[in-house]
Amino acid sequence: MKKIIVVFGATGNLGNRIVRELLKRGAAVRAVVRPATDPEKIGALEKMGTTVEEADLDSVDTLAKASRDAGCVVSALAGLGDVIVDLQKRVLDGAIKAGVPRFIPSDFCTDYTDLVLGENRNFDLRRAFREYIDVSPIQATSIFNGAFADILQYNTPVLNLKEKSIGYWGDKANWPLDFTTMDETAAFTAEVALDEEAPRNLQISSFGVSPTMLWQEVKAATGQDFRLHRLASLADFAQFIKQQRAAYPAGENELYAKWQQGQYMYSMFTTHHTNLANGRYEKLTWTTSADFIKSFVQ
User: Fold this and answer.
1) For residues 16 and 114, what is the distance between their CA atoms, to the nearest angstrom?
2) pTM over the 0.90 mark
């Protein structure tokens, strides 16, 4: 009999990929969506072979019904406190009420467990939900993938193709930064959802690449010498982010406020993954930094 895996956030970019990878592995996937969800997104999920169930996401009883008979509930939800804390609590309570043994929360980010409270608003929300799930009777597994590799294409200070520059903070020119592609994050998540022995925390990274390594690989791919430069000290960067946040209070209601992007960058340069679980599932393959960079630089 196929294992039933319930996915919340299945219409999102990562959630949709997780559904696809679960189906590849022979799971029976039930995607739980809001009643107002775009019919085209529902149709796309159903065409993949997914069972789609509309549910009142404010009702624990309804969420419990939607999670019936599942071996694992996967949350790929994205949002602020009303989603990452409040909604995920209801989803978790529904899973527990339904007798679901395992839960994968929406912790798809840098491993924040060693970071300082207050340094990253979005990580703090995940930390708040972590405190709730860790006193529940369910077996949880958090998947920490670092940053999604796609951000390297978006002209961030770390790699800016328009300005032909590669930046870093402090003395971290040789500091490995953790990146994982969305597809590889999704494939790993599918394996974890079907793995009844998965531990509480799993760190992954398609590749770790320092600013210096980025400079070398961009030059190998393009023949161009990008400017490798120190942007500021980490202390000055942290102070700048605090000033940005204070000056833009509307950002508290934005998922990716400008200062939040700075907080993500700061986190990448203050912690990295040291206990990778990449080898846990033998059939998975991982993209190298050189191959990923070659896929979009010219």
Assistant:
1) 30
2) yes
